[in-house]
Specification:
The chain is α+β, with helices and mostly antiparallel strands. It has helices spanning 42-51, 203-209, 280-283, 299-327, and strands at 6-15, 18-22, 60-64, 68-72, 76-82, 86-89, 92-94, 100-102, 108-111, 119-123, 126-127, 153-158, 187-193, 212-214, 222-226, 241-242, 247-249, 256-259, 266-267, 271-275, 291-296.
Length: 342
């Protein structure tokens, strides 16, 4: 029997450094010249939604640093994923990467993110927000910033009305969540060859053996890294061409750029490598000062790693679906895997 939804007001009292509505991005927008955008860490955003019984692509809140705090006017079911952080409900610590039952009028605080750049907050149900080309993802260049401010009252449509269960805190109830490792040391990013790899003599050895540092000039368009580079030779003028997410560009200056989800869609800089799809969420968490190392892998390895990651997400979706159905928690219409944007 379908559960009726209600509208719950959520009062934001602290908004962190930058908090926005976010989802997995726009599908079928790039042929019209609009980047897909979406959560920088797609893995954490998808998991936040799965853990509260939503579609992977439902709207979440992306929190980039600082303190984010809110108070719901009715019970809500939430999850917080992403970088390690301190999460409290009425001053009591709760865990990241699992469903959390929040009572009516409780104060929830997410703060002190470390070893990463972003947290993702999901609510069971649907957050009310405007859409641009079918997505809640910000697109500031098109006048669609989606910024959340302190004092703002968000609206949530949800069938969740509170939950108490004696087994919820037992280990038997733990979910198989594929939590990334947010180590404080250098991160290792898997890469495959690009179209200009051979033209940059020595770039394979350089990327495989040297350490690179994310600089403060990095943003949602791409990461800028300080470290040694080799400029390709004999290419002449490169005609502007399509550039995918995760492309390693070497511009005229001595730096390395890794393009993100809000990149421009064409460019004329040489591309010497691509980050594998499984490593893109890690790049979305990189803070200024983060050290990185790179490891060359085959295309077959890159595809297999991505498939294994998707299998783990599907296994979690199945487990959450069975669990929520067994104890009467509301699910969105379908918990089948949702395709991410390009």
């Amino acid at each position: 029997m379908a559960q009726s939804e209600q509208t719950v007001a959520i009062k934001v009292t602290e908004h962190g450094w930058l908090s926005t509505f976010q989802d997995l991005g726009r599908e079928h927008s790039e042929f019209m010249g609009v980047p897909c955008g979406g959560a920088a860490d797609q893995h954490s955003a998808a998991l936040a939604n799965i853990l509260v019984g939503n579609h992977r692509s439902a709207t979440t809140i992306e929190i980039m640093g600082g303190r984010f705090a809110f108070t719901p006017q009715a019970p809500v079911l939430i999850s917080v994923t992403g970088a390690p952080a301190d999460v409290t409900v009425n001053g009591e610590p709760v865990r990241l990467w699992e469903p959390v039952c929040v009572p009516s009028k409780a104060r929830v605080v997410i703060a002190n993110a470390r070893n990463g750049m972003r947290n993702y907050l999901a609510f069971n149900g649907s957050l009310s927000t405007d859409l641009f080309m079918g997505s809640a993802a910000p697109e500031a260049r098109m006048g669609f910033p989606q910024v959340i401010a302190a004092g703002q009252a968000l609206e949530l449509r949800t069938a969740y009305t509170g939950f108490e269960h004696p087994y919820l805190t037992q280990p038997l109830f733990r979910l198989p969540v594929p939590v990334p490792a947010f180590s404080p040391g250098p991160w290792t990013v898997d890469i495959v060859e690009g179209p200009e790899t051979d033209a940059a003599e020595g770039i394979r050895e350089l990327l495989a053996t040297r350490e690179y540092t994310v600089t403060p000039t990095s943003n949602h368009v791409g990461l800028r890294l300080d470290g040694p580079v080799v400029h390709p030779k004999g290419l002449g003028e490169i005609v502007s061409h399509g550039v995918p997410i995760g492309a390693f560009e070497i511009p005229h200056g001595d730096e390395l750029i890794i393009l993100g989800r809000y990149r421009t869609l064409t460019a004329g800089y040489p591309i010497v490598a691509f980050a594998t799809k499984a490593c893109l969420p890690m790049l979305g968490q990189a803070c200024p000062g983060q050290k990185m190392r790179f490891r060359w892998v085959t295309h077959q390895h890159a595809v297999q790693t991505h498939r294994e990651e998707q299998q783990r997400l599907m296994a979690l979706e199945e487990r959450v679906g069975n669990l929520f159905a067994a104890v009467g928690l509301p699910l969105q219409a379908s918990t089948a895997p949702q395709s991410a944007a390009a």
